[in-house]
């Protein structure tokens, strides 16, 4: 029986690049240490934040290899996203992850020949799960990027019946009504991970207690404080902390696309070097970086 035990806050990690756009694998050990020292227990490798969809299969494999090594040192649960590639490559990545000590898989849907029904989507995830039968497999629901907008309660119900190692999903949608319905459709050994950083507090109120969000790289303790405040029924504190985080997100998104702005912000907040975004995305301007830094000072999120 496949067991899935990842819960709580799971940052989707960035992929550090050198100035020539090659992957900076040497950055991973220090990055893992930073997250673990800030209370993080698991990471998502290769999500939207990690830009895996812009990388080669060989790069994606080596990134997974290095995170597994770092994860063992720091006790991190390593979840790897294998989708966003031709189907044969997705299967190759899933098989690779099943052999190297990855703890769980996440997969996007097929992005070109898109599934046209819940059953077709379940069939796709089933094939990925069959390639790694020893691993928990989760689905990555991000309809504003994938343009695959199936009903998630119906999907998880059918996936649970058909896929023995199906263990939940990353729910990147602002529709918390559907998120709450999806939570109720899951079994006790499955999990829903909220993918909307700006809705963390209300999601916790609805019973969604795990989340995968880019800003948890920058402000891991802030996010945990939001969850703790809700758990303690200190809703005024939860509201204030959530508003502070949301204003930071607004400052980022005002300066450009999500990954380039957040990658720059990560350097500002941590002092670590992450380099440019993967092509075809472009870095934000130096002026934009300075505006982000100033806003974070105003919000008292950095000194």
From TrEMBL:
- Tell me if Cell division is a UniProt keyword of this record: no
Q: What is its main location?
A: cytoplasm
State the superkingdom: Eukaryota
State any GO CC term. Answer: cytoplasm
Q: In which pathway does it act?
A: Amino-sugar metabolism; N-acetylneuraminate degradation
Instruction: List UniProt keywords, sorted A-Z.
Output: Carbohydrate metabolism, Cytoplasm, Lyase, Schiff base
Query: Which compartment or compartments is the protein found in?
Result: Cytoplasm
This entry's Enzyme Commission designation comes to 4.1.3.3
Single GO term (MF): N-acetylneuraminate lyase activity
**Reaction equation(s) it catalyzes:** aceneuramate = aldehydo-N-acetyl-D-mannosamine + pyruvate
The family annotation for this protein states: Belongs to the DapA family. NanA subfamily.
* Name by which UniProt lists this protein: N-acetylneuraminate lyase
**Which organism is the protein's source?**
Danaus plexippus plexippus
């Amino acid at each position: 029986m496949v067991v899935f035990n990842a819960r709580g806050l799971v940052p989707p990690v960035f992929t550090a690049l050198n100035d020539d756009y090659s992957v900076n694998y040497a950055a991973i050990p220090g990055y893992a240490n930073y997250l673990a020292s800030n209370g993080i227990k698991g990471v998502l490798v290769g999500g939207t934040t990690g830009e895996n969809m812009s990388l080669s299969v060989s790069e994606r494999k080596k990134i997974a290899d290095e995170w597994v090594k770092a994860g063992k040192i720091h006790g991190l649960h390593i979840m790897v996203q294998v989708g966003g590639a031709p189907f044969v490559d997705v299967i190759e990545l899933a098989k690779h992850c099943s052999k190297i000590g990855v703890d769980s898989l996440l997969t996007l849907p097929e992005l070109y020949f898109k599934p046209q029904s819940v059953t077709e989507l379940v069939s796709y995830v089933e094939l990925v799960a069959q390639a790694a039968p020893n691993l928990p497999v989760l689905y990555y629901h991000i309809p504003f990027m994938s343009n695959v907008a199936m009903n998630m309660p119906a999907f998880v119900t059918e996936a649970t019946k058909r896929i023995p190692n199906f263990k939940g999903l990353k729910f990147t949608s602002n529709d918390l009504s559907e998120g709450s319905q999806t939570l109720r459709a899951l079994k006790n050994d499955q999990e829903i991970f909220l993918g909307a950083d700006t809705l963390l507090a209300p999601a916790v109120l609805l019973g969604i207690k795990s989340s995968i969000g880019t800003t948890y790289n920058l402000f891991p303790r802030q996010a945990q404080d939001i969850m703790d405040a809700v758990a303690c029924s200190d809703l005024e504190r939860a509201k204030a902390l959530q508003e502070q985080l949301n204003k930071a997100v607004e400052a980022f998104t005002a300066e450009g696309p999500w990954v380039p702005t957040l990658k720059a912000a990560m350097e500002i907040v941590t002092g670590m070097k992450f380099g440019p975004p993967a092509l075809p995305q472009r870095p934000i301007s130096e002026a934009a970086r300075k505006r982000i830094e100033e806003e974070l000072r105003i919000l008292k999120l950095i000194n």
